[in-house]
Design a protein that fits this description.
Keywords: Membrane, Transmembrane, Transmembrane helix. Residues 61-80 have a biased composition (Basic and acidic residues). It comes from Kribbella pratensis. Pfam families: DUF6458. Helix 1 (3-19) packs antiparallel against helix 2 (29-51). The protein starts with a helix and ends in a 27-residue tail after the last helix. Helix content is 48%, strand content 0%. The longest helix is centred in the middle third of the chain and has 23 residues, at 29-51. The chain is mainly α.
Length: 96
Amino acid sequence: MRIGAGIALVVIGAVLAFAVRDTFDTFNLTALGIIIMLGGAAGIWLSYRLANQRRLTDKPVIDPEVERQYRTDPPERVSDEPIDVTPRTARTRPRR
């Protein structure tokens, strides 16, 4: 049963339970509607549980060999000299 079928059962059960006022000697439409609504709610819950099962495995998500290929380590030594980020067109040439 999919979620749509469960919702349809809840709607049909609600209509039978709350909107229909006919009475029969053999069965009660209100009770039947509530039973159908409970079946629809159980179907929705079961559909959700089956669709979202957790897969528990011991296998890592990323293979360690592949991860090692793409690892980036920081540089060994950082430069002590300041880096000039001024655009070339805006730099002034030192006078001689």
